[in-house]
Backbone:
DNA sequence: CAGTGGTCTAGACCACATC
DNA sequence: ATGTGGTCTAGACCACTGG
């Protein structure tokens, strides 16, 4: 693998660690360094920028978080092979999302029953297909009109208290947030044509493109809940951003 | 606003700054601290955890990045009001995405012309509706079958070299990556029903739900490019994760 | 003015992976 | 064995802003 023969330049604006981050990111983002190219060591960068190692380290840590570089002990720091572009999407709580957009929040519980996890839920939760869960189906309303349909499984082995909750006034997402800690979440976003039942609930035509957000939540390594939110596609848009150069 | 009367507990596993991060995150994630609750100052936490300020600071910076807390000088550190759940999605380069999934990558340029930005592109790029751009429409193939349709505007004021590129063999995304640096990107994800032309190109039925990923890229504050990728919805899924408790 | 977070320093010891 | 990044320390000065 090649090595950089870098001559980094600072732009003198903002904190030093950000200047260093930008200086190192620029040739990577413009494609001048092939993936796998080795960057100078922290020690070398410390001398090049005439600063302390902690400051260099902070810049490199941020670049590693952003996926632009990979760091390996003893071996060094390298330009990441996949320039996977990350983006950070904000997934707000549904109620807050509605209220922030000026709507009046409403909630309707449609179904609630104890049920063994179906195949999809079991796969997402990483539990056996027969594991005991509470299944919930509900609709969130904005100004009285359907906004999003929620279908959820809550693992009873992780959250036994869910068995005693009716959820007829409190949305399950909110109840979980206030009662159950979690440490890790995974999301998937996909597009589906609205099936008859979803279309009826959302008051749209069957077949309308809908955005589905799936989320699975864990506490340590115990799966807590799996939820699918279905939004009418024409009315919803997830946004995010990414600024490795900042 | 209330103050915490916290008694944080470390779990003794992993780096200290991660232990501190988890210790502070846990009561926030489980909803025990109302939004706006003030956390102890860095100095106080330094004493509580019997460590140095840099270590506490690192944990707090990470929590702020994750959106769990808000930090204000002179005022203090507070539990964030919206527990907006972030998620980090990886948006790979299309060619790498296809090759990684084992497919054989192909590319077909469908249209290329100089064109003033239309209303959507102008709005996304933040430039006047008449600004000069190159408009491109192309299709990326996996094993010879259509995988995703790309429509793109490249700002000629930011990337004059694009005028001289034919793009008939090199996908514009790859060319841009290798030739034009960027510092900031914004993304939007939505669901649409396939229009006739898109359906024909993707070899799906008109009306099939498709996932659209919009991306706008800037270099400093100059808009570089705006692209819309349209994936057949049933075959594509964006995934991401979030682990504030790690 | 004084307390807060923002940044930075010049060291240190350690774990780890390659040599 | 040695060089790399991973972490940590015990200070420091500064910028900002609420009281």
Residues:
């Amino acid at each position: 693998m090649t090595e950089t023969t870098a001559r980094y330049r600072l732009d003198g604006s903002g904190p030093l660690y950000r200047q260093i981050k930008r200086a190192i990111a620029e040739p990577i983002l413009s494609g001048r360094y092939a993936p796998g190219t080795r960057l100078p060591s922290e020690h070398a960068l410390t001398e090049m920028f005439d600063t302390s190692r902690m400051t260099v380290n902070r810049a490199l840590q941020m670049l590693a978080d952003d996926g632009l570089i990979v760091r390996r002990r003893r071996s060094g720091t390298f330009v990441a092979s996949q320039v996977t572009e990350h983006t950070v999407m904000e997934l707000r709580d549904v109620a807050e999302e509605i209220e922030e957009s000026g709507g009046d929040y409403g909630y309707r519980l449609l179904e609630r029953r104890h049920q063994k996890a179906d195949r999809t839920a079991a796969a997402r939760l990483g539990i056996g297909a027969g594991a005991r869960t509470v299944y919930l189906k509900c609709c969130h309303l904005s100004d009285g009109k359907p906004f999003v349909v929620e279908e959820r499984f809550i693992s009873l082995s992780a959250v036994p208290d869910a068995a005693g909750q009716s959820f007829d006034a409190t949305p399950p997402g909110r109840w979980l947030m206030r009662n159950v800690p979690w440490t890790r979440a995974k999301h998937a976003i996909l597009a589906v044509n609205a099936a008859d039942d979803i279309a009826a609930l959302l008051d749209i035509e069957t077949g309308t493109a809908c955005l589905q957000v799936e989320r699975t939540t864990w506490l340590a390594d115990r799966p807590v809940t799996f939820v699918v939110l279905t939004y009418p596609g024409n009315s919803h848009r997830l946004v995010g951003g990414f600024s490795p150069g900042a």
In short: Chain A has a mean pLDDT of 92. The helical segments of chain A are 16-29, 42-48, 53-65, 94-100, 119-125, 172-179, 196-202.
